[in-house]
Amino acid sequence: MKDIILNNIVVRHIFTPIFGFFFFFFLIIFHPIQVFCYNVFGYSAHKKSVDILCVFLTYCHWITWCSVKYEQEEELPIDRPKIFISNHQSFYDIPAILWFLRKHHIKFISKIELTRGMPSTSYNLRVGGGANIDRNDGKQAISEIIKLGRRMKEKNWSTVIFAEGTRSRDGVLKPFQVGGISALLKSVPNALVVPIVIQNCWALNKDGAYPLRLGQKLSWSVLKPIDTEGKNAEEITKAAEMAIRAKLGQ
After folding, report:
1. What is the pTM of this model?
2. Domain residue spans in the chain?
3. Regarding beta strands 217-222 and 192-199, do their DSSP bridges make them parallel or antiparallel, or are they unpaired?
4. In order along the chain (250 residues), what is the average pLDDT of each group of 10 residues?
5. Which of 117, 146, 181, 211 is most buried, most CB within 10 Å of its CB?
6. pLDDT score at 135
7. How many helices (H) and strands (E) would you count in the chain?
8. Is 132 exposed, middle or buried (0-12, 13-18, 19+ CB in 10 A)?
């Protein structure tokens, strides 16, 4: 009965705008907070402001009657950088990753277009220390990823790379691309490689951007690190892909 009610188009049209209001309200409110924290107190204060923002963005999903679940198969060390290899289903993937893995100082490899026009998000991408790449300029992209790798090594940061290269809009995993992972591994050869599995975020937009599907079981699962001993970038990428496919049942 609950599923029937939540899938009712009228109910979806009621709860989706409420969710949208609060989601974008937090993005707008935290934009000047981020600017203030970064320019007055520096990186650490800015990061804390982003962490707090991501709490609100992650649990906004309760408004749409979605559950939010995080699981981690084993404790990860905090004294070495990590490359988290993940599938990608939605913009909603990202705030939860930043919140749940906040102690690992997560950075992203993002399209340079995202550094403009989005409150909070664009500012964080510009000053947060990730890699903002031009997909039409392979040389620039690799250069930015290598610079990110150097920052990871120097500051003990971690990076999430969406190895499919684009979102999966139906939840079906796309083949992983090795280029970005290879560039990071060359820059940070001691990085721990860890798969992340995101489930059901795609289903929020199953029928399009509006209205959202309600009552989804959203989950983020951090799997065991990949054994990289004696493996090249292609083999490591394939191992991560197979681990994620197994978790997704694909």
Report:
1. 0.94
2. 2-248
3. antiparallel
4. 78 96 98 98 97 98 97 94 96 96 96 94 96 89 92 96 90 93 93 97 92 96 94 96 96
5. 181
6. 84
7. 8, 7
8. buried
Question: Which amino acid is it at 248?
Answer: L
Residue type for position 141: A
Helix %, strand %, coil % of the chain (to 5):
50, 15, 35
* Rounded-to-integer distance, Cα 16 and Cα 231, Å: 46
d(CA 232, CA 227): 11
Q: Report the CATH fold assignment for 2-248.
A: Glycerol-3-phosphate (1)-acyltransferase (3.40.1130)
Cα(first)–Cα(last) distance of the chain, in Å?
Answer: 29
Other CB atoms within 10 A of residue 21 CB: 12
Element (H, E) at 121: helix 121-127
Task: Say how far apart CA 99 and CA 105 lie, in whole Å.
Answer: 10
